[in-house]
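Give me structure tokens for this 305-residue protein.
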Amino acid sequence: MRGSEYADLKAFVMIAELGAFARAAEQLGVSPSALSQTIRGLEARLGVRLFNRTTRSIGLTEAGSRLFVRVQPLFDQFEEAIEEVNASRDTPRGTLRIAAPQMALVHLLQPMLGVFQRDYPDVVLDLHSDESLSDIVANGFDAGIRLGKHIDQDMIAVRLGPDLRQIAVASPEYLEKHGTPSTPEELREHRCINWRRAGQTSLYPWEFARDGSWFEVAVTGSLIVNDCAVALQAAVDGLGITVWTEEWMKPQIDSGKLVPLLREFSPPSRGFYLYHPSRTRMPASLEAFIHVVRQVALAGADNPA
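Here you go.
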């Protein structure tokens, strides 16, 4: 249906419901003469008369009655659909699909799930673990969560937490046997545990900084995994050196299972951000989600474990 046909049928339904051209014209914001011309055009296209007109009244013809019976419920459904869309814009409801790395799900989203479900029971959270840096728009997600350095510039990004520090670690047993590297370049002489993002062929780069400039070090070893948590456990087991986010290794570091390495070459960098493709017409459910995640993250920063 073309836009003009929709408008003409809407005018027809309005006249039939109100029983007067003048009242219908007022409701539609047009002149009675313009409305009469619209109906004449509609009747000409359909090849039938829709109204019997006199100087005092109008009434539907038989053809007009049949058309009204079929069309009028459709306009009611249109209006209900529009009302539902407007309601979903202002009231959090429906399904919200979020893609995020596993550790963001564990450390950022897991703590807020109870609060979110309590405050917004009409929203269904569909959380997808994704380490692949996939296209959230192409895959049908409302938003994604990534480290700030991995977000495309055409996305709208909302900071969810503090800067994070990624450091190299190894077990005391490994360091006792193989020695402790004093510079990032010396990692090339060690057994390193690499990991690879899902869907990618290249290994995750080990990044360090010196004199304010970031650089990468290509390391080698006998183990490559696609889950950083597996790499971490392998380091605890003494299989080699790996890199991960320092804040998430605090239990292993505090207990002495892992030893931080090369901290002076590992300054903090941008932490996790929620990102989505447009600033306009953000669903109310996404606004609520961002609010709760930031609120819980801030509370966690103020009250560290």
